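Hi R.,

Here's the chain you asked about this morning:
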Amino acid sequence: MKKHLFAIAAALLPLSVFAQKFALQDNGDLQVTYQGKPIIVSEQFSLLQKNGFAGIDSRTEKIGEHTVLNRFGTMEKLQFRREAVLKNNGREVEISFQFELPAYSRYADSQLKFYAIYLPYKEFANYSYKAVQGRVSKAFWSKGVIPADAPEGAQLAKGNIRQITLTAPDKHRSITIDCSPAGSNDFYSDYPPNAGIMSLWSFTRRGDFIEIKVSYTPHFYGGSLAAKLQIYEALPENDYSLRHARLNGKYFSELPADEQFVFGAKKFGKMYTNAGTTSFAAGKKYGWLDNLQLKQESFAPSGAYYSAVYSDKSATFRMTGLRKGLHLITVAIPTYDRPVKNMSIAVNGKKYINALSAAPMRVTHASFPVWIENGSADVTFEGDWRLATLNDSLLQTSYEDLTFKRGFWVSTAGPHPSVMFQSGHYAKEPEYNFNISSYALPIPGEEMKKTRKALEYPTAYADFTGKKDWRGGAMIGSLGPGNNGSFAEFADPASLQRRLSELKQDQTSVIMLNGFLSRHTYPAHLDRVKAMSKRINSEGHKLGMKFLDHSDYSLLWQCDSGYRVMTERMEQLQFTVTSHLPARGLCPTNPIAKRVFFDYMTDFVKSTDIDGIMVDEIAFHGDNFCGCAWCREAFTRDTNWVLPADETSEHLLNRNSPLWRAWLAWRQKVIGDFWVELRGELKPVKPELVFIGYTTHYGMWGNYASLTTSAVLEQFCRSYDFIGTEIMTRNAFASYRGTYSMRKMKNMYRNCYGIPVFGLVYNDARDWDVMYFGWALNNMHAQTTWQMRGFQRPEGKSDYRAFTEEKGNMSHKTARSMAKILLYFSNSSRDCSKSISPINELMGWSQLLSSKHVPHEFINDQGLNQETLKNYPVLIVATATSLSKQDIAEIKKYVENGGVVYASGFVGYYDEIAQKRAHWLFGQELLNGADYMKDDTAGYKKLRVCATGEEISSDAPVRYARYFYPKGKNKLNVLWEFVINDKGTTVPALMYNQIGKGRVYFSPAIFATPAYSIEVTSKNIIKFQRKPQAEALAWQILDMFITPEHRIWDASGIPEQVLTSIYKTTGNRIAVHLLNATKSNYKPGDKIPSTAPANAYDPLQEVMSFTIPTDGKVKSVYACSPDFEGKKILPYTVQDNAVKVTVPAGTLQCYMIIYIEQ
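And here is the predicted structure, written out as tokens:
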């Protein structure tokens, strides 16, 4: 940028304007001054290739106390608009910018576009700053000083800013530039395109200026960018805490209360302030204006709902010091031996609840939205009323409002460059609603009085009778954008046809329609989205394509109109268990919310003829949800137990409580019930409609989702027809060890439910080689790959997307694993969260087996039955901490029938709801009466072989669980022992027990954990360090019970870093998959890159071979691959019913499948 392009605003403005705090002018370029000194000296929209908007259409308006300057235009289908507003007669400045471009237009060229404002560097050098930085969920404060002379391009605040306050060294001048005026209320403000108002702006040195810039790089599918900033004085009344409701916005979270009052209880939760019958005093900021007629009563000694203030006279409770904005008021109204009649509630003279009545022995809640602008709320109660608690939560401040009383633009006259944020969408305030709900008052101490009922788990799946089952192909693709698409990108019929043709050419016949994830928070767009979806389906079906719609059920984040929708659907929200505070999410058991969704989805499926649906966030929004009346009553109906209403109860939020564990199990069940109910609604419309969904790998094996949100795959699988994973590493090539084992583990859903599996592969650098590796990792496990965003193949790269069955790919539908070893992942052990995590050792065993190419499969609880187990002679249970009586019975029966089991550590230490039994049931049933000793672990001095006295060394010593073992005739066969002290005292370290035809091996230690490498995300540090001695020790154990027949083949001629899998497929062919990870040699301390090395897939210059038994005459052996055309015939020899295959040097590049025809 050149200096002569800028002019100081003061030179252009008459002296009279300096009476204002701020002034702005647009004489072809934008200038803003504060106290007569320049703040903004120029602006730039990059496509204009000049500063300012000279020569661009303009409009100046006076709207109330605002002076509004607009610039707008079109450049080869790209439409843009910049609005600058001098607000409130000079007290603030607001600048808004937006552009949109359709798919395949000239500027959809993968080149960065930006809008920027420029501040004079010298003017702000040495100013101190205080900034909000980081993404919505992790926003943080930072402080510093603008250097006197920073280098060109330097980040002046060490990263992008959401807001920054600049203060002169003498403190006489301080302004705030707020790049996130709508606050931290949605996730899409972190990144474009379309769905959010961008809130992260760069803050850098550019020549003689500070550049504050927002940008977007539109790929072929186009999209829009919208951004806004506000500039105001850094005065106490403009403090961040007053202009913004919160610093951070979590994906799932409680909406914190500003005030929580209790009115009768003596013992209550720490979240409450005891207001009682206290008279208002300004110093306290709360109290009753007229308390003479108030009375108090108690039903129980503890809990806010078990005492109340009441009266049959009007009384007003005042709260002061409230922030300006939209508040959610929630009151609890308990009844004991007498009812409440004709109760009304008003705030600041406006009545919100009228004629409320409640029968005896009930808890009634009322919640409603209230705008409070004067900092004070007078809450008036009338009728025969009662009050236990009053809560006030600030949803958003008045300053953050861009959807209720105004829209994105100050001038509604247009033009509107985008389908997004059009003024008409917010022309009217919403129809504010309220919630009134009631449930039976729980009697403290009687919550578990009745016998707990067993939960029921119905199932319902798609019916493909007479229809083609299209699941399980090689690829699921996308039109282009991800979850923040707008459904406007391909509105032009020619663009849509072009994109569908490209996808068809890529052999991508299943397309996920992404966009407006929280579809319900974009009410102004629903008809347009439905119409566009119908067009896409209609045109694509003509080409033989199938389409999936991706949306959300519960999120009420402030994406577009999320908060508007929330205030209209108050009676459908999730509420906290402990205080009944409303949350920004719809309840998955609420019959009103479900009916709205079921009706919407029924109409959508009918109208669009969509082939499948993916619905996210059918979940609870945290540990403390959902305490609504619907959830409480359904829990009691299904279990016979009652969720306490006393927030001080020892059971609430206590994972050691059997009641809370039963509640968590019930929450999981009702998430599965939702899907089964939805199937019942949609099956008459389209029986073959596919339900599809996914979690991350952590969502599969970790217990955050299962315990916190209750969204667990085993419940989804009661109705899902296609199940997958968001593969979060973003670079499976670099993190192949951990990711490979997770893809193998994912197949437990295929093995247990017969459901096809997919993996979502993406990469933050859009690196084709990394994407190829991720696709291959899925494909070698008979899994489909989903690529969420449109991605075009670079010239010269292998086209894995075109590697169809016709070109040699394996049929996912007919493929059957040849593995003879099973690893058992226990769902209840995942959720147990006691003693030890079950995942580390289990995955250690998997990674050990994979390191020597030993095929194995996974099952979960659903597969722990004799029908599944009979096909596998070896079952590794490892340290599955939580097992039901039935689980242990199935394992014992398997052993009696001839199976071999390996178990370890704290196996079966707890029952299915994480409660310790009177005796160790696993030891009682499978280890001849072994029993608990102590709950902690112990270390040892030595580990040695009993038969020889040989000492076994390890470079990763472990600790062991302590038990009492049987003696005499029931004594176990001890193979290894721990020497635990200098006296030579020993305890068993490895033992076995013969039961019927089979054998159980058990170690109280967990020897495979050192072999476990987690999946590492790109840009994070690798910490895994191989432990050769520990791995050798673990292999000694495996070699005791894994025979050559269990190994299936001899793969000693294949390098460890060539990943393998073996399947039987169509025509009794054996399919051997080889994936080249030999160039993935990252060490502990290395940062996982976003790309693969340039030589990642250079042909492997090493001869490989393997030998595998056959059950027929070998006809031919050949390889197929995306890396070469046709078949490559491979040399082989046959001897003793086994074929030895040789893979010549240079054959394997990235990935190939070797077929053995027999």
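One quick note: Confidence is low (pLDDT under 50) at residues 1-19.

Cheers,
M.
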